[in-house]
Amino acid sequence: xxxxxxxxxxxxxxDITAREKxxxxxxxxxxxxxxxxxxxEPEAYRWIQKxxxxxxxxxxxxxxLIIEGLVDEHLQVVTPEPVAVAMAS
Length: 89
What we know:
Layout: H1 11-37, H2 41-54, H3 59-67
Helix pairs in contact: 1-2, 1-3, 2-3
C-alpha cells in the first residue's frame, strides 16, 4: 500500500503575501492623501478607488502615483507628457 501524495499548498501563501503588499501600498497612499490633502481615511480610500475606476487602472497603480507625488493639488492624476521622438532620416 502506498501513501497518497499530498500536494504542497504554496499558492494561498503567495496570494496572502501579494495581498499584503497591495494593501501596504494602498495604505501608504491613503496616508499621503490624508497628510497632503486633509482627507479622512475613508475619503482617501474612496478617492483611490474612484480614480482607479475612472482611469481603468488597478488601485495599486493609482496608489503608486500618489506615493510618487504624481497627483496635483487639484487631486488630478498627473502623468508625464509623451516624449516626441525624432526619426533620423
